[in-house]
Amino acid sequence: MDDSTIVCKCxxxxxxxxxxxxxxxxxxxxxxxxxxxxxxxxxxxxxxTNLVRQIISESLDKPLSDIRPxxxxxxxxxxxxxxxxGNEESSSVISVFNESAPKEGDEDHD
Length: 110
Known about the structure:
This protein has 110 residues and is mainly alpha-helical.
């Protein structure tokens, strides 16, 4: 692969940026993610994970099985925008973030 080859299409991160991150001490996908934003685009690393892991494996001369995939963060399932803005009666956001929904019997203490 050429250094200008795009590895993460969502964030337009190329091979040279990944290799620079590795030379700077990145040893995991999450390290590279923190340094480059690789895997933080709309696909949330679904497209670039395996390629980045392979690059790390080859650069560090480690078996691919030793390179963990990135950590997944909430939401773990798609959430409708209308749920986030409060236009839906039964919002999946409320079940994830209980503090955003008033509990029965709670009074306003402002």
